[in-house]
Design a protein that fits this description.
This is HNH endonuclease. This protein is α+β, with helices and mostly antiparallel strands. The protein contains four helices and twelve strands, in the order E-E-E-E-E-H-H-E-H-H-E-E-E-E-E-E. Helices cover about 25% and strands about 25% of the residues. Strands 3, 7, 8, 9, 10 and 11 form a six-stranded antiparallel beta sheet that branches. Strands 1-5 form a two-stranded antiparallel ribbon. The protein has a two-stranded antiparallel sheet with strand order 2-4. Strand 10 and strand 11 form a beta hairpin.
């Protein structure tokens, strides 16, 4: 069984079922898994879920790609922070979405389509949040494609996310809806360049991970949260996230999330 090794530690150990996102964020309803979207030319989609014609439905999204030790480490160190941001956002989202409508005209002049600001609570740990997001990419991309994240993920104080990764975050105004995990995919541009990226949609947030080493072109996008991966474990405190907001059709075109108006 060639693929049955843990996608974080790389060891051949029994893999355990894990809910992504954690069940307590509401991941217990029927979800649909897609193979990316129609604009994606090549998909290296690979998940350990049963796959009927590219999608399946299940109660909650589960993956069996990590070992028990890794799952427990994530659960003990990162999951609460991750869940906390979802719960805080749900609490404040009414105001935030109202603000988006107010900001729309103003933001058009500075080049960003729409964005929102969100204050993180005093005890929020940016590093833990980023680690949980990165672990979700490990669990849902091709086996072995992210083993270089092992030290970053399995030592909570490690701030060395490998330099090839760039992580972006966006707000998806539709507050509920299905979670989607793309796996690695290659987006081709008209001039023959391409970027390698994976995305995760977990409404109300979406995440895009770029591989800056294998890509020949990197789109200039707002919402880069990679710097949060270099904050110390004990660096908590007040942070304001300024995130691009994805509207309408672009929700299913993650390579456009956070696009500046004049950019391609
Ligand atoms: Zn493991």
């Amino acid at each position: 069984m060639g693929n049955r090794f843990c996608r974080i530690c790389g060891e051949h150990k029994p893999l355990t079922l894990e809910h992504i996102p954690p069940r307590s964020t509401g991941n217990d309803h029927v979800v649909v898994v897609h193979r990316g979207d129609e604009a994606v030319m090549h998909s290296l989609f690979d998940m350990e879920v049963r796959d009927d014609d590219g999608y399946r439905q299940s109660h909650g999204m589960t993956f069996k790609t990590l070992c028990e030790d890794c799952n427990e480490y994530l659960g003990a160190n990162y999951v609460e922070t991750f869940k906390g941001l979802y719960l805080d956002f749900a609490h404040e989202s009414g105001d935030i979405l109202d603000g988006l409508d107010r900001d729309r005209n103003e933001s058009e002049t500075d080049g960003v389509e729409r964005y929102c600001e969100f204050d993180l609570g005093e005890g929020f740990r940016p590093l833990a949040f980023v680690k949980q997001v990165v672990s979700n990419f490990c669990a849902t991309t091709a086996p072995g494609s992210m083993l270089d994240c092992k030290d970053f993920l399995l030592d909570r104080g490690n701030i060395s996310l490998p330099a090839r990764y760039r992580l972006h975050m966006a707000v998806l105004p539709k507050l509920d809806g299905e979670s989607v995990f793309s796996g690695w995919m290659r987006v081709l541009f008209d001039d023959g360049t391409f970027c390698d990226m994976a995305f995760i949609r977990m409404p109300p947030f979406g995440f895009v991970l770029y591989d800056t080493e294998s890509s020949t072109y990197l789109p200039d996008r707002a919402g880069d949260i990679t710097p949060m991966s270099r904050m110390g474990w004990d660096e908590t405190g007040k942070i304001t996230l300024v995130l691009p907001t994805v509207t309408g059709r672009n929700a299913s075109r993650p390579y456009l999330w956070g696009r500046y108006q004049n950019a391609v």
